[in-house]
């Protein structure tokens, strides 16, 4: 399989995926490669996707977007983690806080010391050792890389932002750097003589836009990768039962918490994403267990403020394309697959998808080996995120609704089963290269969902009881005083 050099890239779609792709490709590729983006105001975007994870900051840095400009333009706020409320049992919460918990020793991770102390009767909570968690619940924030006068890292943070405003910001940056935008609705594709290779896109008004490489950012429609090339969509709904969402913005809250809330309900869960000017809300649920009216009534009863728009129903299918790259079409964003927003991963997957495309960008001609490696890495990444999300559902101890009972009794992928059992029995954790979520993230969700390791690494037995107590006590005190001296979150977003 081959084509000539890639001289023209055409991106279909101007949602977060389209504009992130345009901005990043423009930043990375030589100017002689033209980039055109087609979008249709008439179709619009999905309009959700407002919580992120920390690597978004690197994206902004690479694109030269200043943090103050970003916060102002997108009505952004800081995000220190996600509070999971009622996920293990009703009435109990835990946080997946970004950043480390405690401090690892060279050969033995911190949680083994905590597990030993717990087995020996210490009542301290795992999150007593998380700077992010303690700052989050105190409503504090400070963008420092280290706790002053220590070698303990500072807060690890991401952002909440208004999705429409972020796409506009990226658009301005991309257009200023030479990306050409075409407004119009694509009605057809122009095939080339080669199988799976497109020659161009035809707009409904008859205009034709030709290209050498096409990036499908057309959202759930998957216009190029799915409808034109017929790449199948693999469903993961055996493991992830939710298939619908209802989204509605509400008036803002004060003070603005520096974390996302994920509140479990009887047949799904609700998100609350606090922005400067409003709160983004939605309910993700299983249509097998609830109809739209039931879901809507739960969502509207639990809004943190006055609704600001009509609720929008968004059906979705959890899963991914069998291949993310086929012929001269690469799918990025919702066209390539979707995992529900429980861990705010979709925008990040756009970022890694475009980065991967840049890494594997054809030097001269598109070759099968590049495509195969791109697809292999994409699948590994998606499966690892999938397992992490399933973990939250599988480990619940709620017996108050059939939805949660079904989740607790489902079989999970072997890869996930192995992880849970290893941790449960030994407190150890498989080290995975290139996993998006750190051990700290997995540990917090496992512990938060009720798995307590039955033993700990022998190295954690080296300290005397007194030394262990002093070590843990010292760490709690250091975190406590550090949070005490931080300014409120509001100072960051003023
Ligand atoms: P879209 O926003 O749907 O954009 C598609 C684009 O294609 C539009 O510009 C449209 O006009 C264009 N288009 C389509 N067909 C045509 C055509 N024929 N001609 C011309 N143009 C066309 N992600 C996170 O990281 N964090 C979250 O908190 C989060 N929450 C979510 C909640 C829900 C309920 C859902 C469904 C998703 C969520 N996501 C989240 C995912 C996130 O919203 C998406 O990854 C992100 O918005 C990117 O979407 P997109 O650009 O792929 O698609």
Question: What is the compact description of this entry?
Answer:
The protein has helices at 16-28, 56-63, 67-74, 110-119, 131-138, 163-176, 223-228, 292-301, 346-359, 368-394, 402-409, 414-426, 439-448, 465-484, 489-493, and strands spanning 8-12, 34-39, 77-79, 81-85, 93-97, 158-160, 180-183, 186-191, 198-203, 208-210, 213-216, 233-235, 244-251, 260-265, 268-274, 278-285, 312-315, 319-321, 325-326, 329-331, 337-338. It is an alpha+beta fold.
What does this protein look like?
The chain has 494 residues and is an alpha+beta fold. Among the domains are: 8-76 and 161-235 and 318-385, FAD/NAD(P)-binding domain, CATH 3.50.50.60; 101-126 and 413-493, no CATH class. The chain is 35% helix and 19% strand. The strands form 5 sheets. It has a 7-stranded mixed β-sheet with strand order 5-4-14-15-16-13-17. Strand 14 and strand 15 (268-274) form a beta hairpin. Helix 5 packs across helix 14 and helix 9 (346-359) runs antiparallel to helix 10 (368-394). The longest helix is centred in the last third of the chain and has 27 residues, at 368-394.
